Each structure stands twice: as C-alpha cells, then as structure tokens.
Amino acid sequence: MELSHLKLEKVDLRDADLTGARLNGALMAGANLAGAVLFGADLRDIDLRKANLAKADLRGASLRGANLADANLAGCDLREGRIALQDRVQGFRYLDHAGGPGELSFAVLSGANLAGAQMTNANALATDFTEANLAGAFLGGARLIKARLDGADLTGADIAGADLSGASLRRAVLVRVDLSFATVEGADLSEALHTPPAVVYVDDRPLVGLVNAHEAFCVSGGDSGEAVRLDGVDFRPMRNLRRRKLSGLHAPGSVFFGLDMEGVELQGADLSRCDLRGVNLRGADLRGAKLIDAQLGRANLRGAQLGPLEIGPGRYARTDLSRATLRHADLRTAHARRARFLGADLHEARMELCDLAGAELEV
User: Fold this and answer.
1) Are strands 315-317 and 83-87 parallel, antiparallel or unpaired?
2) What is the distance between the alpha carbons of residues 299 and 302, in angstroms, rounded to a whole number?
3) Which residues make beta-bridge pairs with 27?
4) pLDDT digits (tens, 9 = 90+) for 297-353
5) Nearest Cα to Cα of residue 321 among 311, 334, 336
6) With contact defined as beta carbons under 8 Å apart, do 51 and 35 qualify?
7) Residue 86 has pLDDT above 70, yes or no
8) What sign does the dihedral 215-216-220-221 (CA atoms) show?
9) Closest by alpha carbon to 118, among 137, 101, 103, 141?
10) What is 58-80 written as a DSSP string?
11) In DSSP terms, which residues pair with 325 in a beta bridge?
C-alpha cells in the first residue's frame, strides 16, 4: 500500500496489518499503532513522535532517519526480517526498501520507551537513544556504532555481541549489563551507573548507620546523633528512604537512582549534581533544597514541597533547580512558589496544577 507522506497525525491503527506498506515521510505524530503489523514496512523519515507502538511488529522495517522521540515501543519487535513475494520470472523475490531491512540508522528515539524490545542484530548506526528506556531490551548482535545512549536505561538489557564502538553512554544505566561480550572500543562510559554494591561504607562506617545518625540529629534538634556529610555516595543499597527525616543533608554528587523516597524530609538539603532519575519523591519536603545540576528525569515529584524555606524572621531560602534535568518528570500538584528553574530542562514534564507563582522560569 502506498501511504508515503500522508498526514495521519493521531490516527488510530491499533492491530492494523500494514505489512510492507510504504509510509516513508508520513506525518504520524501521536498515532496509535499498538499491536500493529509493520513487517517490512518503509518507515524512512517518518514522524512518529509520541506515537504508541507497544508490541508492534516492526521486523524488517526500514526506520532510517525516522523520528520516534518520546514514542512508546515497549515490547515491540525490531529484529531483522524480509518479505518474499511471488514473481512470475524469478519465482520469489525479496521486497526491499532503500536502506535495507531492519534499518534504524540515524533515527531519533530520544526519550522513547523500548523496554523489552526485540532488537537483535538491528542496524542502528548513529541512532539517538538519549534518555530512552531500554530496560530488558534484546540488543544481541546489534550494530550501535556511534549511537548516542546518554542517560539511557539499559537495566538488564542483553547486549552480547553488540557493537558499541564509538558510542556515547554517558550517565547510562548499566545495572545487570554484561559488557564482556560486547565491543565497546572508543565508547564513552563516563558517569555510567553499574550494579550497586551490597553495602556502602563511608570512612569505614556503614551508610545505614550514618543515615540513622543524621536522622537522630534532626529529630532531636541536635541533642543526639550527628550531622553527616555524604558527598558522592551511592545510596542505592538502601532502596527505601520513605518518610525519613533528613533535613539539611549534605550529599552533593550522590546517587539515589530509582529509590523510593516518598514523603522524605530534605528541607535545606544540598543535592546538587545528584542522580535522582526515576526516584519517587511524591509528597517530599524539598523546601530550600539545592538541586542545581541534579538529574531528575522521570522522577515523581507529584505534590512535592518545592517552595521557600523560612530560615529566620523575614528570611527565606528558595529551592534551586537551576540547570536541573526534569525530562518526563511528574510535577503535578507540586508547590513550587518562587522556586528557581533557570536553565532547567522541563521537556515533557507534567506540570498540571503545579503552583509556580513567583517561580523563575526561562521562557
């Protein structure tokens, strides 16, 4: 079927059979293609931003130059595949689109959900997977040469035999990822998160004990415990900081990735440059906290307190989120009066009913 360059935004094509269709250059942003069969389809240069392609069959599809930013591709099949057609002269011939089957090179998949996707042997030269969710994806034998995977979540992904030569994986999450059978020559793995240790020690003291001491200091008003400094510490082994009282915690550059911190009290805390991606901070008290350059992608800040903290008569410390990354974060019903968001990345952040009165926002 010839459907190239058609305007099909937000079209509902759930479970449609589009095997071998020519959709190159089509405008399909926001389309619902969940469960659709796009086996061997020509999807070159297509606009599928924010489209739903969950569990779609994309085997052998040519996606060279396609834009799938923020699309849902969870559980989709992107493996190689070819369509054989009957031919009176040749008997059978392959249906080929320019770019070849299973072609993902130069496609844009930034922020896309590819959790559990089948991408074995996929050709993804210089493809943009920035901040994409590739947790549990099958990337065995995939050609990811010079691909951009900065901030991507590859937790539990299978990359055996994958070629990541020259790829950028800065701040990528590589928990339970075996790199020993992949080619990573020239790849940038700086600040990548690997599997956390079972126990973390700071100056020969267990992290759990230090956190307990700081909480005792906060609860007692300084009569017991101690105020601790935990610069650059990996908090992931704690797993849960729900409703802990940790006001004034000094932990710049620390890792809290994926932790449950619902209702935690962190008034006046220094969390600058911290990795708080995917953290549950629902209802957390972050008044007056420093979150400068913090990574808060996909964090849950629903109903969080981000307003000013009174530090004396007529004196207030504002919550500072300058240059923080809040891509896909949930800030619904949060209280962010007078908060600083200068240079912050709020791409696709949920801001409904967020109180931003007096906040510093760059437009």
Assistant:
1) unpaired
2) 9
3) 7, 47
4) 999 999 999 999 999 999 999 999 999 999 999 999 999 999 999 999 999 999 999
5) 336
6) no
7) no
8) negative
9) 137
10) -TT-B-TT-B-TT-B-TT-B---
11) 295, 345
For residue 174, the SS3 value is coil
Encoded tokens for 188: 């940038």
Extended strands (E) in the chain: 83-87, 91-95, 201-202, 205-206, 309-312, 315-317
User: Which one-letter amino acid corresponds to residue 161?
Assistant: G
170 Rama class: left (phi>0) / alpha (psi -120 to 50) / beta: beta
Q: What's the pLDDT score for residue 100? A: 53
> How is residue 207 written in tokens?
């992290």
List pLDDT tens digits, range 237-255.
998 999 999 999 999 999 9
Rounded-to-integer distance, Cα 80 and Cα 57, Å: 11
Residue with tokens 């940790």: 246
Q: Is the dihedral of CA 89, 95, 96, 97 positive or negative?
A: positive
Report in angstroms the alpha-carbon separations of 100 from 80, 104, 158, 165, 267.
Answer: 10, 10, 24, 21, 55
Q: DSSP string spanning 257-325?
A: TT-B-TT-B-TT-B-TT-B-TT-B-TT-B-TT-B-TT-B-TT-B-TT-B-S-EEEETTEEE--B-TT-B
What's the rounded Cα separation, in Å, for the pair 205 and 315?
A: 36
The helix/strand/coil state of 156 is: coil
Residue 309 pairs with which residues in a beta bridge? 317
- The pLDDT confidence band at residue 103, using thresholds 50, 70 and 90, is confident
Segment (H or E) for 160: none
Secondary structure class of 35 (helix, strand, coil): coil
